[in-house]
Design a protein that fits this description.
- By secondary structure, the chain is of the alpha/beta class.
- The protein has a single domain, classed as NAD(P)-binding Rossmann-like Domain (Rossmann fold, 3-Layer(aba) Sandwich).
- The chain is built from three helices and three strands.
- A three-stranded parallel β-sheet has the order 1-2-3.
- Helix 3 (about 65) links the parallel strand 2 and strand 3.
- Helix 1 (about 10-15) runs parallel beside helix 2.
- The protein starts with 10 loop residues before the first helix and ends in a 6-residue tail after the last strand.
Length: about 80
């Protein structure tokens, strides 16, 4: 299944496609501009891997409760050094 992020918020479409379960893994190169939607799309015990901040590095007012939905939700960040 494909979801066109340019056609509006993608989190409701992700939840609809997964019967409100969310996805197990998100690989995010964008960062701040998709932060809230990524958290809303993430399944309980899902993983969000932040690989870049092309959309900004300050996520504004993040709903911390979305991060704490599960004891096993993981958010990983990775930085890449360009030579």
């Amino acid at each position: 299944m494909g979801i066109n992020y340019k056609e509006g918020d993608f989190a409701p479409k992700v939840l609809e496609a997964t019967s409100n379960q969310g996805v197990d893994l998100i690989l995010d190169f964008i960062g701040a501009s998709y932060w809230a939607q990524n958290l809303a799309s993430l399944a309980i015990e899902g993983r969000l891997v932040l690989l870049g901040t092309m959309g900004g590095s300050v996520a504004g007012s993040t709903e911390v409760g979305a991060i704490l939905r599960s004891d096993d939700t993981r958010i990983w960040c990775h930085t890449v050094a360009l030579c």
